[in-house]
Amino acid sequence: MRLIIFAGPPTCGKTTVIRQVIRRMIRKNHKPAYLKIDVLFADEDKIIREEFNIPSRKLYSGELCPDHCNVVVLDEAVEWAQKEGADFLFVETAGLCLRCSPYVENSLGVVVLEATSGMNLPYKIGPMLTLADIAVITKIDLISQAEREVFRYRVLEAAKEIRVVESNALYGIGIDPIVKHIETTNELEFPMFLRGNPPVGTCTICVGKKEIGAKNHFGVLRTMEHDLFYIGE
Amino acid sequence: MDIQSICVIGGFGKTGEAEKVERFELKMGDIISIVGPTGCGKTTLINDIELFANQNTPSGRTVLINGETMPEDFSFDPKEHPIALISQHTNFLSDLPVGEFLKIHAKVRGASDPERLISETLEFANQLTGEAIIISTGMTELSGGQTRSLLIADAVIIGNSPIILLDEIENAGINRTKALELLKQYRKIFVFVTHDPHIALLSDFRIIMKNGSMEKLICTNPEEMKVAGELGKIDNLMLNFRTFIRNGQEISGSMMKEQLNILTLTN
Questions:
Q1: Percent of chain A residues topping a pLDDT of 70
Q2: What does each C-alpha distance from B34 to A57, A220, B210, B253 come to in angstroms?
Q3: pLDDT of residue B130
Q4: Residue A118 and residue B158: Cβ atoms within 8 Å?
Q5: Do both B131 and B250 map to the same domain?
């Protein structure tokens, strides 16, 4: 199983990129599964299922932060994808808090950024960008070449080692290099660990427990099958 | 990237028929125009060029650079991209002041003397605009004409792109005759999408589009070049009236007579 985690601000084009990637993955005889984690509303699971006929699910994080939700359910999500016979699990997360990052060790972290979102965005989104392996810059057709160059420069200034891919995902431009990176991703290793250090806080994830899976945490939790519950004193 | 030539091999029009212009080639220093009624596929043609189409776009065209197709793993790093496309809807969205933006762009391009490049860029742009661009203005505060002027100047001077595609610059309210005159000083390939007969006749050749298809290629002949000169004068007459009106003058019949006199005197 290989795990590909997509993060990025709302409406930046994550789903459009993922659809183009999945289309190419299927053409290459891979078996992708898709999980969308969002806060209040998502219909991407349906769109993906209808378009590609692959295993596809969604989870609402609701009262949990989406990154928190990601941490406590990801082990079950991988099991689900394995049971469905998938060899790649694509997780799309809203990644809203900008202080955590959803990426797991031995997975591929992809951050999606909109070229139109302003030159300071790369400095504003912290570990969602700096801990990712690939930055996909979308909507490049809407800005001038000069601005593309300056935006790319700023991304690389914020995350020096990151690989930048520019894409006009609506027309499928710049997707092949992303697929190439995905295909060379390492096999997932268990137990899974978060890549980054979470911020100081009072929940088990916030205080630094990086083990994936609800069984490793206490406080307010949820699983794939059960809504919020509380474990602790 | 060292560009000597770019070649476009025809594909298919909207009806699925093969294009009548089977291929055309551009060498450094060439200026060409793409003409035809709206909706005929002019913009699609320059998009194909910018994307290095390799029978993978709806038109089925192929673009060769120095006689070869672009390798599949061609890096989309924009600073390696030999083509600058200035489209009708490109706007600046950056929240930086003009001076700082140009400075970063010059730095990205590894300029040894960024200050000189920045002032050259602004000087170029300001010859095309009505009111001069102020260096401390935010990019998003520029007018449509100022934006387009700065885009062109930046692509030519800081970007130093060998191939520049310009989509209907006449719509931006900039001085297009002046633009062409300035651009001609730089040895590059310029492709204009245009409805302007003056720009079309100042080009080395023009491609006539119809129904999504390259229908005809006409090389500008000596007589056409002479006509281009005449059209330039009419253009100037229009520009003079534009200046009168912009300056708040009232227009009279005698002004028209005077302008027409100048026109016939110079014939």
A1: 97
A2: 49, 64, 11, 37
A3: 78
A4: no
A5: no
Rounded CA gap, B42 and B22, in Å?
Answer: 16
Q: Is the dihedral of CA A131, A132, A133, A137 positive or negative?
A: negative
Same domain, B81 and B195: yes
Chains A & B: contacts with CB separation below 8 Å: 77
Å between B188 CA and nearest CA of chain A: 17
Mean pLDDT computed over A12-30: 94
Q: What global pTM score does this model have?
A: 0.78
CATH class name, domain A2-198: alpha beta
Q: What is the ipTM, given to two decimal places?
A: 0.71
Chain A (176-215) residues lying within 8 Å, Cβ to Cβ, of chain B: 176-177
Whole-angstrom Cα distance, residue A128 to residue A122?
10
Q: How far is it, in rounded angstroms, from Cα B108 to Cα B106?
A: 5
Domain hosting B267: range is 222-267
Residues B83 and B199 in one domain: yes
Mutate which of A142, A147, A157, A173 to test chain B, going by most B C-beta atoms within 10 A? A147
Would the CB atoms of A145 and B84 count as touching at under 8 Å?
A: yes
Ramachandran class of B106: left when φ > 0, alpha when ψ lies in -120 to 50, beta otherwise: alpha
CATH number assigned to the domain comprising residue B154:
3.40.50.300
